[in-house]
Every structure is written in structure tokens, then in C-alpha cells.
Amino acid sequence: MEGFILREATESDYARIVELSVDAISKTCHSLYSKKEIDIWIKAQTFQKFARYGNQGDFLVLEDDQSKIIAAACISTVTRYNFSSNVDHEIYTLYVSSEYTRKGVGQYLYNEIENRLVLKKATGIGVVSSSYAVPFYKKLGFTHTGTTRSLITNITCSIMERVL
After folding, report:
1. How many domains does the chain have?
2. Residue 1: its pLDDT value, please?
3. Which 3-state string (H, E, C) describes the chain?
4. Which domain holds residue 98?
5. pTM score, two decimals?
6. So what's the pLDDT on residue 80?
């Protein structure tokens, strides 16, 4: 995307990724979840969580021309849920700033992730998706394979997979 910079996240980014995730959750998911669920979900957005994700996988950020992080995603070979045998990578997180939703930013970031996985000869990718993001992942070719409760927030989520 022109005018944006895609790069690996660093430890100095994690506080800004927390802010990004809180913005995305509070402004895009409020109509699908109760205030209590949103509050629990927001409370789970911590520097420590994103640092752990960064240590377990590839963490990418997308910045605008003002160096503001407008999207972030982490993918890992450590899968935390019971995906099919085709899945060898999991999207731990993919957040887009509320001011950039529905502008192709999430799809661009996902395409970059997928390109990297294809180069690594990955076979499939799984995600445990919020209700808000299910249409996004379906558009990208993911199929719904079940439901579960988030390990972090205990909210109901969709298990989705895509063979690469």
C-alpha cells in the first residue's frame, strides 16, 4: 500500500499495539458483545501479552506516513487450539485501527502474512476469530470449522481455517 510502511514489530512497539487493539475492540466490536465482555477483552490487551506473542511468532506492524501504527498482526507455528491437521500456523492477533477499517488495510496485512507463509512452505493457517471479524476471514477464503471460547477472554469465537 502506497504511503504505508510494513515492518517487523519491536519491543518498543508493544505499548502502541496495546493502544491499537483497545481502539479496534472498543470502536468496532461494541455492538456484538456486552460491555462486560468488551471490558474483559480490553483488560487482556497488555504489553506482556504482545511481548509473548512477539517471542513466539512473526509480528508485523503497518505504519502510516506519520509513523502511527495502524495495523498489527502476529502469526505463529505454535497453535493454541485444536485445528485440523492441515493447519501449521495460527494468527494470534490481527488488529486494524478503527479509522482504517474497510479500507483494505486488513486484507493487505493478511496478504503479506500469507505470502511469507507460502515462502515457508506452510500448509494451512488457523484463526480463532471474534464475531466481528468472521466476514473478513470468510472473504479471505477461510472456512468456519467450529466454535470455542477464547483462552484469554472466555468470549465465544469462531474457529476458522484456510489451506494454503
Report:
1. 1
2. 73
3. CCCCEEEECCHHHHHHHHHHHHHHHHHHCCCCCCHHHHHHHHHCCCHHHHHHHHHHEEEEEEECCCCCEEEEEEEECCCCCCCCCCCCEEEEEEEECHHHCCCCHHHHHHHHHHHHHHHCCCCEEEEEECCCCHHHHHHCCCEEEEEEECCCCCCEEEEEEEEC
4. 5-163
5. 0.92
6. 81
